[in-house]
Amino acid sequence: MKTEQIIEEREDSVKMKMRFKRFLSGFMAVATLASVIIQPVAVSASELEPEEIPFEQQYEEMYAEIEYAEEERLEKIQFERNCPKAFLMVMTGKRH
After folding, report:
1. CB neighbour list of residue 96: distance below 8 Å, 6 or more residues apart
2. Is the dihedral of CA 83, 86, 88, 90 positive or negative?
3. End-to-end CA, the chain
4. In degrees rounded to 5, what are phi and psi of residue 53?
5. For residue 80, what are the contacts with CB-CB under 8 A and spacing of at least 6?
6. Rounded to whole angstroms, how far apart are CA atoms 80 and 92?
7. How many whole angstroms separate alpha carbon 73 and alpha carbon 68?
């Protein structure tokens, strides 16, 4: 009787190990499939979209460039008024 009981316990132990291995295998398969689905979603969600510059800031930058160009134009006009024509011809290589 004792031997039969030991054999039964061993068989039960082996069956439990097999069930656990089967469960673990199934769990790992599900985890693998889940990671295949979730990983691309997580990566795409982590990518940052370029930060859009507010219109007001763009306007300020463009206005600053326009002001700079206008200042350059006024300086050129002032320079042309104050310099003798001969000097301008020599410096620019143009005849006015």
Report:
1. 85, 88, 89
2. negative
3. 126
4. -80, 130
5. 88
6. 11
7. 9
Residues with Cβ within 8 Å of 88's Cβ and at least 6 positions away in sequence, in order, are: 80, 94, 96
C-alpha 80/C-alpha 73 separation (Å) is 11
Nearest to 85 by CA among 74, 96, 75, 73: 96
Taking residues 84-92, what's their average pLDDT? 68
Predicted confidence (pLDDT) per residue in 25-48, tens digit: 999 999 888 888 877 766 666 666
Average pLDDT over the chain reads 81
**Separation CA 52–CA 11 (nearest Å):** 68
